[in-house]
Each structure stands twice: as structure tokens, then as C-alpha cells.
Amino acid sequence: MTAPEAPAVTVGDVEELAADGLRWLAGTARETAGGGLGWASRPSDSGLDPSLYSGTAGIVPVLLEAWRHFGDDSYADSALRAGLGLADRADGVEDDSLYFGRTGIALVLRTLERELGDTTAGAAADRALERLRSRFDGTRWGELYELMGGNAGIGLGALLAGDTELAVLAVEPYLRTAEPTPAGVHWAHRTGVEARLHHISHGTLGIVVGLARVGGATGRADLVGLALAGAADVVARDEAGPEGFLVRHSTPQYRPDVVEPVSYGWCHGPAGDAQVFRLLRDVTGDPLWPALADRCWHTVTRSGLPRRLRPGFWDNSGRCCGTAGVLALACDRIAEGRDVDGFARVLVADLAARAIRDGEGARWSNSEHRATPSDLEPCAGWAMGNAGIVRELLRFVRLSRGGDPRYAFAWPDQPPVPARATAHGPGTGA
Q1: pTM surpassing 0.90?
Q2: Judging by beta carbons within 10 Å of its beta carbon (0-12, 13-18, 19+), is residue 305 exposed, middle or buried?
Q3: CA–CA distances in Å: residue 189 to residues 149, 201, 252, 343
Q4: Could you say which of 12, 167, 361, 367 has the lowest number of CB atoms within 10 Å?
Q5: Cα Rg for the chain, rounded, in angstroms?
Q6: pLDDT, one tens digit for every residue, the chain (430 residues)
Q7: 185, containing H or E segment
């Protein structure tokens, strides 16, 4: 999928695009038992997906965002109905993780209790956390052992859902499973794999997030120290210094037949690395970390994205692997007074140019250059679909108007910014 050079858009245009994206999301919702709502990852899927990554739990945050942004109670009502559907599913899911299973569902249910007073959701969150505790084998919950599918994410989600004891239980095993390297430590992201992944979604830096956040919140210097050792290993692998920062996906390369050795987004690139460095800045106060975040941004803004330079280079508009994830970092930097160079406007204009708009609303089709046809079915959820994209567009609009840069729901691995941290916005016009 190739888009022409994206024309500039006004803030009003972006807000209208976000509203159209929400309208498409509403049209793809399905009713569940007892008056609940649920979403499939893709409208053509037969079953509902409850997960934070690609399903209903990841859609609730954008509904809360829209409720706060537009002041329209229908979005809060939809969030509550989605909570009903999630409460019904929380006991039966097989996966325990933050992004794919029970932990993410519990965190969203807890958020509905806190933000909207939904005691039914709160009780379901309590049950889910107890179920998590009962399924721990003393070291892990399953094959994955990282942020998205394993202990680091479970610890992070438990912490934010209010279960500090479970959070510590989840991350303490990293103390005894760390593998020393010349510069620090790393971990296997799953059993039986030689490659060691380095970035936030499945690699060392994702584990660093869990250790640093839980360690910082509980006063556990040993956990924070281990987080710093993990970060040191990744920093030593940089190939773009001294101004930039770029680390390969894995060592040795994991699945070289399908995985790019270098990427730039949230999941396996400097856009996500910068979020980890922002967290370490907040936990330690060490000026090394914001300097490294600046170097990540230097590399991202000179990489060529969001242009589709070649097949496979930048084929995703979504929050996990694409343009919306970079926009999240751009808006963080604007809110903290660290970026007024206009790159956020470039990203927003590209998202607007790539949107599919018709009577049903707006949505985005990602591309897979190895498939025919290469344009994929639009998705609903946070990772690759409308929920993740619309959430960032709404925040961009608020920043442009001098509003509150904080999210209605702070994503677990994205460090929050202070309220109205700066008066500088990305300014695309009224």
C-alpha cells in the first residue's frame, strides 16, 4: 500500500477523523449475554476477542478517551457494556498475560471500577487476580517470559490493578533467571529458543519495564538494579551512536525468514526503547536516560517513516508496530516540552491520508507485502486497529488545543506525563 505525500490537516479535520473511527468501531460491536458488548479482532472473525492487544479490553480505553474528550455519555455506556462482556469472559480465558489474557482484562475491569464506579467490574477484577495467583507455578505462567505474554506484563498489570503482592511475586523470578552478558544481563523470552530479543514487546527492555516499575513502586532496590543491568545490555548493543540509537531485533536473529533485523516502531525499535528510557528517567533521576530517549527520537525522525520506502519497511498504521505508536511518543515529547519540530503533524497527516472513509466511518488497512492481495482487513483493537489509532488522534487534538496531555487510561508500559506539562502544542490550525 503506497500513499501519496500526505497533505496537511487541521485539528478539526483530525477530530472529525477520530469521530469517524469511533463510529466504525461502534458499528462492529456485537452484543453478548446480559446486554454486554464485545469485539472480534477483525469484523469477519467468528469469535470475540477479549484481549488488551487486539480485542475488547483494548477498545475500552479509547471509549473512555472519547467519553472524556467529547463529553458524550454514550461512550461511557458502551465502556460499561464492554465491561459486562469482559467480566463474563475473565474466568474462562486460558491465557494469563497482560496483552493476550487475564491480566489485561483484570486491569481494564479495575479501571471501569475506578473511573465509572462499576462494582461488578471490580469484583470480576478481584476474581481474575486471584485466579492469576492460583495459576503461578513458582517461576512463570506459561511459555512466554516477557512483557506481552509473560511475567513482566503480569507484574506490571497486577501493580496497576492494585495487587502489589502479586506484582512482586511475578517479577522476582527474573532475579534468579537472568543470564549475564558482557555489559549486563538478558533473558530468554520463551523456552527452547537460542535468540535473545532486545526490545520492549518480547525482549529485555520489556522485562526492564516490569522490574523498574514494580521495584520503584515497592522500594525494591534489587529489582531496580536488575532493570538497570538489563537496560545496560541493550544500550551496549547500539549501532547508531553517538547521536542516534538503534539496536537489532535479536541476537542471533530470531526467525530471519520473516522478521526484519531492524525496525523503528514501539514493539522492536527506538520508538519503544525511548518509552523505557523515559521510565528509567522517572525511576532513577539519572540524566543518562532522557539523553538516550533523545537519541532514539533522532533515529526515528531520520529513518524515513512514515513513508513506505520498500516492501516491508513501514506497512502498519497501528499502535503496536506502526505510525500511531510513534505518534504516542511524539505527543509525550510535546507534552514534556522536548519536541516542537512538527514531526507529530507528519504522522497525523499520514494517518489521515491512509484512512478508508465511507458511510460506515473510518478505519485503516495495514499491508502485508508477502500476501496477495497485500491490503489486510481493517482491525478493531489497540495493536493494529482503530482503537489504538483513534486514541492517539484524540490526544493529538487535545495537545494542539492546549488541553490535558494525559490519557483517560494510562497504558501500562507508557510512562505518564504531568497534567498540562507545557503550553506548546503541535499546532495544525483550528
Answers
A1: yes
A2: buried
A3: 9, 10, 13, 33
A4: 12
A5: 20
A6: 344 467 889 999 999 999 999 999 999 999 998 899 999 999 999 999 999 999 999 999 999 999 999 999 999 999 999 999 999 888 899 999 999 999 999 999 999 999 999 999 999 999 999 999 999 999 999 999 999 999 999 999 999 999 999 999 999 999 999 999 999 999 999 999 999 999 999 999 999 999 999 999 999 999 999 999 999 999 999 999 999 999 999 999 999 999 999 999 999 999 999 999 999 999 999 999 999 999 999 999 999 999 999 999 999 999 999 999 999 999 999 999 987 779 999 999 999 999 999 999 999 999 998 888 899 999 999 999 999 999 999 999 999 999 999 999 999 999 999 876 444 456 445 5
A7: strand 185-186
CB atoms closer than 10 angstroms to residue 273: 31
Longest C-alpha distance within the chain, in Å?
A: 58
Helix H or strand E encompassing 147: none
Please check whether residue 377 is in contact with residue 40, taking contact to mean a CB–CB distance below 8 angstroms.
Answer: no
Backbone φ and ψ for 215, nearest 5 degrees, come out as: -60, -45
Supply 390's cell numbers.
483513534
Strands (DSSP E) contained in 270-316 are none
Q: What is the DSSP-derived secondary structure letter of residue 4? A: P
Q: Which residues pair with 356 in a beta bridge?
A: 363
Residue 353: CB atoms within 10 Å: 15
414: Cβ–Cβ under 8 A, 6 or more apart, which residues? 275, 328, 332
- Pull the grid cell for residue 361: 466511518
Segment holding 180, helix H or strand E = strand 179-180
- Side chain identity at residue 253, one-letter code: Q
Task: Name which of 55, 57, 65, 41 is nearest 103 in CA terms.
Answer: 57
Q: Which residues make beta-bridge pairs with 197? A: 250
The cell for 298 is: 533522532
User: Cell digits for 335?
Assistant: 507534552
Q: 317 is written with which cell numbers?
A: 498504521
C-alpha cell at 347: 504522522
d(CA 86, CA 345) in angstroms, rounded, equals: 35
| Grid cell digits, residue 299 | 533515529
Rounded distance between C-alpha atoms, residue 272 and residue 356, angstroms: 27
